Amino acid sequence: MKLSQGQVMTTSKGYIFDIKRFATHDGKGIRTTVFFKGCPLRCKWCQNPEGLSYLPQVLYMESKCMHCLSCVHASKQGGVRCVDHKICISRNIKEDWDAICDVCPTLALSMDAKEYTVEKCVHEILKDEIFFKREGGVTFSGGEPFLQSDFLIDLLKAC
Q1: Domain CATH code at residue 73
Q2: Same domain, yes or no, for 65 and 105?
Q3: Cβ-proximal residues to 6 (8 Å cutoff; 6+ apart), any chain
Q4: What is the pTM of this model?
Q5: Which DSSP symbol is given to 8?
Q6: 106 three-class SS
Q7: CB neighbour list of residue 82: distance below 8 Å, 6 or more residues apart
Q8: What whole-number distance in Å separates Cα of residue 115 and Cα of residue 55?
């Protein structure tokens, strides 16, 4: 992966739910696997169900929650409520989920994916550049990477 000095990057963006380093099962050598969000298929053997939905979704880890109610107070539309001393998440309610996750001191609430620019994704991939010199490389997986084809093509060109 070579980016020349001053190369203009695209403003293309995409949703990535994971970047796995030191992957040895997704191609030859030691690889970095980039997992794209979104898949129209519903395979019974799906290895990455967190990649099915195209849009990022809020995750709630009850075991991390200290019930400080910061998330309830940050919820403007009732997407997070406390019912019988339990936090209830209504993902179908339109909320500023990023802002709600940001106020959670224990990270009990988080998003299952992040939006990446091509530049930001390449920056993450290049952290493993040393492995690419010994038959390693990058694998794009998912979800289904072709659902975000513009982002994928721009990313491939940058690589």
Answers
A1: 3.30.70
A2: yes
A3: none
A4: 0.80
A5: P
A6: coil
A7: 67, 69, 72, 88
A8: 10
One-letter amino acid of 111: M
Q: What does each C-alpha distance from 34 to 8, 29, 81, 89 come to in angstroms? A: 22, 15, 34, 28
Which domain covers residue 103, as residue numbers? 58-111
Where the chain has pLDDT below 70, the residues are 1-11
User: What's the pLDDT at 26?
Assistant: 80
Judge residue 138's burial from the number of C-beta atoms within 10 Å of its C-beta, 0-12 exposed, 13-18 middle, 19 or more buried. Answer: buried
Phi-psi map region of 31: left, alpha, beta (phi>0 left; psi -120 to 50 alpha): beta
Same structural domain, 90 and 123: no
- Taking the C-alpha atoms of 140, 144, 149 and 153 in order, what is their torsion angle to the nearest 10 degrees? 10
* Assigned token pair, 156: 């491939």
Contact 17/35 with Cβ under 8 angstroms?
yes
**Quick check: is 3 in a domain?**
no
pLDDT of 97: 95
Q: How many domains does the chain have?
A: 2
Residues 119 and 48 in one domain: yes
